[in-house]
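Weekly structure sync, notes
Attendees: PL (lead), two postdocs, one rotation student
Agenda item 3: pending single-chain targets
PL asked that the sequence for the first pending target be pasted directly into the notes so everyone works from the same version. It is reproduced below exactly as submitted, 99 residues in total.
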Amino acid sequence: MMRGYLKVRDACPVCGEALHHQRADDGPAYLTILIVGHILAPVLLFVYSTWRPEPLLLAVGLSLGTVALSLYLLPRLKGGMVALQWAKRMHGFGSTRNV
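Predicted structure, written out during the meeting:
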């Protein structure tokens, strides 16, 4: 479904479903921030209360973890948002008229 890191193809290469009208907008970014924050906040608390590392070491370690986890989750969550739109027939996927 994806052509690049975050670019969605114009159409599915297998079934031909048009994907050019999908609108994920800020949803994947918001979910990424939400998930990363909920994962790393307890990690920060545990690491600080258990080992009391130097502040610079703690900041560098958690910054690297935040960036790595964000880069991993963002394209997967964007694909999930497009799939949810497809399943709910939103934003041009299928008929949107209520009869």
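Discussion points:
- The chain has a mean pLDDT of 91.
- The radius of gyration is 19 Å.
Action: rotation student to compare against the earlier draft before next sync.
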